[in-house]
Amino acid sequence: MTKKILSVVLGALALYGMTLISTNVANAAAIIANHECIEDFEFIPEEYLTQIRNDYSFYYGHTSHGSQIMTGLSMLYSENTDYLRPSFHEISDDLGTLGDTTWVPGTRNYLNTHSEINAVMWSWCGGVSGNNTAGI
Fold first, then answer.
1. Which of 16, 47, 73, 135 could staple 99 via S-S, CB 3.0–4.6 A?
2. DSSP state at residue 92
3. Where are the extended beta strands (E) located within 1-136?
4. Nearest to 126 by CA among 65, 60, 59, 67
5. Which residues pair with 90 in a beta bridge?
6. Which candidate, 63, 53, 69, places its Cα nearest to that of 100?
7. Region class of 100: left (phi > 0), else alpha (psi between -120 and 50), else beta
8. Residues 20-71: pLDDT tens digits?
9. Higher pLDDT, 127 or 104
């Protein structure tokens, strides 16, 4: 796999894996998801994947770079149908720069009319570099 594909896969793993632990974290072993974990996908318990699909519904807004997470999820599924992705409402939009928060009303309006959504993600592109705290 190329580094780009690994990045996509890792983004997908992060999306799946980082929302999994709901048990006693103090007694759980650490989970490290980095570029070396690709060979460990087969060890993700099926019940974790099922829990994600059953318990999470995502609203995901992004610019072009953010599509890599969705591409990674599709690639995972094409390799192994155990990796069926959870529910996503995906929009392509720019978060803007310099305090531009025009993305906020659209996000809130959608959430107000779609109570099934319980996780929100936004992915910035280069605009975050010139943004400020109020804009983020």
1. 135
2. E
3. 57-62, 87-92, 119-123
4. 65
5. 60
6. 63
7. beta
8. 444 444 556 777 777 777 777 778 888 988 999 999 999 999 888 888 889 9
9. 104
